User: Fold this.
Amino acid sequence: MSSEESAGPAHSPGYEIVYPQTSLSTEKKERILANLQKIVGKRNVSCREIDRLSYSRDYWPIALRWMLEGKVPALPDFVVWPETTDHISHIVRIASEEKIPVVPFGEGSGVLGGAIPVQGGIVLDMKKMSAVLTLNDDNLTITVQPGINGMNLERFLNQKGYTMGHIPQSLYCSTVGGWLGCRAAGQFSTKYGKIDDILISLEAVLPQGTIIRSKPVPKSSTCPRIDTLLLGAEGTLGVITEATFKIWPYPEKRALQSYAFSTLKDGLESVRTILRRGIFPAVVRLYDQAETERHFYSTKKARGKCILILVEEGDRELVDLEEAVSHTVCTDHGGFPTGEAPAAHWMETRFNVKEISEFTPRDVVFDTIEVSVMWDKSMELYQSVISAMKSIEGVIIASAHASHFYPQGVCFYFTFGGTSLTGSPTDFYETVWNAAMKACLNAGGSISHHHGIGILRSRWIREELGPSHDILKSIKKALDPENVMNPGKMGL
Ligand SMILES: Cc1cc2nc3c(=O)[nH]c(=O)nc-3n(C[C@H](O)[C@H](O)[C@H](O)COP(=O)(O)OP(=O)(O)OC[C@H]3O[C@@H](n4cnc5c(N)ncnc54)[C@H](O)[C@@H]3O)c2cc1C
Assistant:
């Protein structure tokens, strides 16, 4: 996709740009292009309209809706494919001097607009930095470049007899850099942890070009960890260029279980008890009645109930014990055993995604919202978010499952769908999101468990963080005085 063309016009007429930017002067554009070509070579820079359009959005449903309506969310001026950390260091130095944005781009599977270049500038596509650098069996670690695709990484590990345990639904269409940038969570997170738990150390380029590297050690107490500022920063504080992660021997045994509960509360209580007993199944998913009906309609014994899916994996003897303890706890809490089949069905279909573009022309809007909450407020949060969403005129579906669990609390993953009866689909979408976010905040939850903030959630970030948001702004200003790194995100 790269080209050797010289700088073209900022955009062609014929489509509306939702976040338009002032065009760079031809002189400035040609100067920056020449400098970028000097750094990464001509084949690794493009100003072609087709490339700029390809990097104009991520997987935020509203950005997709804009595209289907013929609108372009935003256009970068340049698309660049760096191949080394030094390339990135030089690129951000130029960007600082020229005061133009730099937006790291993994695979654009972020769902909140985090990778959209709202102020133009340089999109850094990280996919040419996708090597596995070292696999260390003594330490059980792997070191990789950030542009590696999730499935390629996991397949590499599986072939060598390991797993990273980080299996997001977007495994086939996301990168390590995006995971760290958004603080992602995989479907097997209850055993293996979230990406921030799995990370050992990283290398990153800060906004003024400095390269930082943390030591790969299991733990140290040497001042606050500067590298962890990059986690969840969505590319606003620098570019992650390398990461070392924990890995595990490939599980010897996998056990599949499922139980139907009369109420969500009983199901939650079972999981809370399992975790208190020190059992951490890799996958724990508890669906409310609506989602049980939607996803497990062929499990007759679960009709009208809430189904719990458990997948335990690891050492054979431990898995046998985990399975036995989980069974006792679930049946003690009124869970009816529904066998392996529903869990096997989930395993088979876990990467299936409903193509939202098929609904868009019909003005039907769907989205998902993941939040987290402590156990003692979990039912209150679930009920308030569901009723807040249902109270919006036009909502047809409002449901949830819980998919990431801790001894202290839980992540709820809500789904809503509907159509606006009066205003535009976008207004409807924003009204439902607003109702859900307010209900979550009022119930003491966090507005995001693993998708991040991006553009969409920026409007509630102040309420989420309070004065800490000012501190974040000060850190951003200190590290990035020219505001070049992914501007316009996270309310910064
Ligand atoms: C079908 C589907 C299923 C999904 N399932 C899950 C799931 O199970 N769990 C989950 O957590 N998320 C999930 N997501 C959301 C998304 O996949 C994650 O947010 C993922 O981490 C994004 O990775 P990416 O490489 O596509 O990043 P992008 O979308 O390209 O970028 C995301 C953000 O990270 C920044 N970034 C990218 N690379 C770097 C880097 N090297 N250094 C610094 N910043 C960087 C970008 O600037 C942007 O702000 C899903 C999305 C889809 C579409």
Observations:
- The chain has four domains: 16-127, 132-249, 253-349, 356-456.
- The longest strand covers residues 395-405.
